[in-house]
Each structure stands twice: as C-alpha cells, then as structure tokens.
Amino acid sequence: MERMLLPMLCLLMMAVGCKNKNQTPTEPESDSTAVTEKAELTTKKDETPRPLFLYHLSTDYMTMVYWDEELQAELSSRAKDYTKIVMEDDQLKDIKFTGEVLTNPDGEKLFVGELHSRPTLPSPGLNYAFVSPENKKDWWGMSAIVTDSYLQTRKLLKRELLSPFDIGKPFPQSVVKQLEKEYDMTAKWSEMAYRLGNRYTYGVVQFKPKNKKVIALEVVTDGDKTYSVAEEGYYESDQDYGWNVDDEGTYIVSSVCAAFEGPDGLELCFNHGAPESQTVGMMFIRDGKLVKEEYACYHSLIDEQAPLWKKDLAEMRKLYLADDPHENKDYKLTKYMPIDIDNDHYDEIWLRDKDGEHGALFTNKNGKVELIGVETEKLKVSFLQTQKGKGYVRIAGSAGGPSIYTQLFAIKNSQVVERFNKLEIAGELSEATLNGKTLSHADATKYTSALPVSREPYLYFINIEEE
Fold first, then answer.
1. Is residue 442 classed exposed, middle or buried when 0-12, 13-18 and 19+ CB atoms within 10 A define those classes?
2. CA 71, 8, 345, 274 torsion: positive or negative?
C-alpha cells in the first residue's frame, strides 16, 4: 500500500482497495495463503447477491455509499433486495430502501468513494431505514446488509470480541511459528481479535521488517488449520514503515462486521478502518486458501466544515424577517457559524449581519429549519453547558431603564423543547414564563437554579458567498 491514501487513488480502483498493485506480497509455498482479489458482488455459483456495507452516522443517516460510478446502476437495481442489517449483537433487523441520493441539497453532484463525518453532509448511494421504529439506534460505523436469498443458504455466526480496549491477545505460539516458517520472517506481534461461531478465530500477525519489506498477515484459524493473506506496506527504514496514514508502523486489525457459514465455509465481512480511510470487503476460505476480496477503499473526510445549503439559508432569512418585518428588514444576515448546542451531531446555525450585532439562531435537522431566537444590539447571545441531553441558549439584555429581559431556550434532538422568559427590574424578578405558562417567583427561582453553568465556545463566523 502506498504511504499516503489519496482520495483519487480510491476512486480510480474499481471495486478494489487502495493497495499498490506494483507491490507483490511475499508468498510462501503453502496452500493456506492467497492474495487479495477483485471483489465480486454476486456468488459465482448461483448469482446470489453478496452482502453490502451500510455506513451510518445516525438512525437518519444509513447509506450504502457508492464507490464506483460504473457500478451504480447494478447496485441500484438490487437496492430493494437488501432487507436485513446485522446489528452489533448479531441480531438481524428489518430494513427498507428509502431512495437513491446523487446530489446534495443544492443540486450539486456528489463524489463517489467519500465518507463524511457529519450527518448533514450526504454521500452518494442508497439510503435505508429501519422498518420498526423501536430498532432505531444512533451509532457510528459500518454494518453488513444482506438479502433474503443470501440468508437462505448461510448461517449467521456469533462474534466474540477477544481483544477489547486495545489489549492484544496473541495467537498461540504454534500458529505464529508456522507462519514465521511459511513466510521466512520473524513475528513482531500478533493479536486474536474475534472468535466466530465458536469455531473460527480472526486476527493479525505482523512481521519485523526484512530485506526492506514489511508484511502483516490477516489470519483465520479453524481448529488446527491456519490461513493467511499478506498485506505489504511501505518501507523507508527499519524505524519508518507502515500501511496507512499515521498508523505509526502498526497494522490495524480489521473490524468484523458479520460472519457467515456458507456452502463452502466461512464468509467474513470486514471493515479495515484507518485514520483517513475505510476499506470494506469479504474474506473466504476457498479451496484450502484464505481469499480476501476488497469492495472499496473509501476516503474518510475528517474535520469537515458543515455547509449551509442555499435552500436552508433562504428559509432562515425568511423566518428572521417574519419575526419582526419592521426591525429586521435592513439586516440581510451575511455570515454564519455552525454550533452543535445539544451535542446530537446536528449543528444549529447562528446567522449574523455584517454589523456583528443583529442575527438569529436556528435549528436545522433533516431539511427542517426552525427559528430559535433573535439577537439585537441590546439582546446578546450566550450559551450554557449541555445537561441531560439538553443544550441551552440565552439571549438577554436591556429592556430599557433598569429592566433586564432574558430568554432561555432548551434544545434537545435539534428541537426547542423549553422556552423560558423572565423580566427583572432593578435586580428583582418581575415576571417569568415557561412554555407560555406563568411561573411563580419560587418556581422561576427553582428553574433557574437548576440550569447548568455557562460555556464559551470558540466563535468563528463564515462569510456567505453569493452570486
């Protein structure tokens, strides 16, 4: 594999990973080893669709992300056939196809082969959702999805994680010594990662550099039988080598998304996660060898700036003007700042005019925009810490003379769930309401005393570029 996993490299390799094909891993004279092959999307025997991989950032963001434009039509034609997802506890849950995504909300074409880190940033592909609302679960990662026809001839195997929390559990010395002999190299470390169906074991053996080559093995054992696939990395020196960006010379153990006992033996769905990429595919024990087939090497985009889509901006400006047409008509709102007030991974949007004093805050989730509150030269915005899943915005300032007016908005799941208002005159509470209901002095004091402490987020506003 090249030292740097560039996005274009991933896009150029059709249904294969980001491996450097000019590098040929050392192959021993053994029937237990096979090199990586080009992925097949169906079985060669009966054309049964193989598992695909669903990328999820939240329950509302579950996408089989396209990695090659030439395969889009084939994948799309089978979209409705994928009806089951393998959950983390090896339960199969019903899913349904909800539509194909090819453009962003502004109508611009999306790039294949890219995984985004924010749920407001779509990837091109096939969207899915749980059939039963009770199965909804927000979790990040890759999961295997399968068709009913695939399950007719496969048994889902239970996965047992053997090395949690980066505590490596090594392979038995008999396995390590066998592989050292086959490859004529010395092991640096080994790790058994998963036990599959109380039969197979999956893990990694990494060798020390030798003759300017570095090799790691994907390893599967079945009783006293050992199978392996070699992955060769880049070599600069005995201290400078690796396989992925920033892996610091350690081959990263793949995650097993699902494992099945098929007509010909083990069928393992894997996700090889690295700091800037995710490679998905399958491994099989076939004709006495371990075969690894890579579907795609996705470029994982990190530290992305959340966009403000044109349609959402137009709606926000409309809501701002409607809040007070007379006062707000002179302020266009020309810059914005994304801020996740309630830590639900969906950013709220703070819009401001160029004067830096007039503006408004909005919730923005799944294309639905709502006004939170408006700031002026007198009413200023501040934030409180998140508490019990709620984030808080305070907009407060002078109401004339010795009067101070405070609005407090509680945000949960990108919705305003509480609206608290109070008026103080000369430091004494005059009146207070919660969700439109008048509060007594005691209830208002109780409410405010239970609020979390203030926080001061880093403020950075982005100028809105418009044609």
1. exposed
2. positive
Separation between Cα atoms, residue 272 and residue 280, nearest integer Å: 6
Instruction: Report which of residues 314 and 11 the model is more confident about.
Output: 314
Q: Which helix (H) or strand (E) element contains residue 386?
A: strand 379-387
Q: How many CA atoms lie within 13 A of 258 on its CB side?
A: 26
- The residue type found at 204 is V
Q: Which single residue is written with the structure tokens 């809105």?
A: 464
Element spanning 127, H or E: strand 125-130
pLDDT, one tens digit per residue, over 287-320 is 889 999 999 999 998 878 778 999 999 999 999 9
Q: Which amino acid is at 399?
A: A
Q: What is the pLDDT of residues 168-208, one digit of tens each?
A: 789 999 999 999 999 999 999 999 999 999 999 999 999 99
- Report the b/e string of 49-73 with b at 16+ CB within 10 A: bbbbbbbbbbeebbbbbbbbeebbe
pLDDT of residue 431: 95
- Name the token pair of 137: 């679960």
pLDDT average, residue stretch 434-452? 95
Query: Which string of DSSP letters, residue by residue, matches 403-451?
Result: EEEEEEEEEETTEEEEEEEEEEETTEEEEEEETTEE--HHHHHHHHHTS
State both tokens at 360: 């408004």
Cα(25)–Cα(215) distance, rounded to whole angstroms? 7
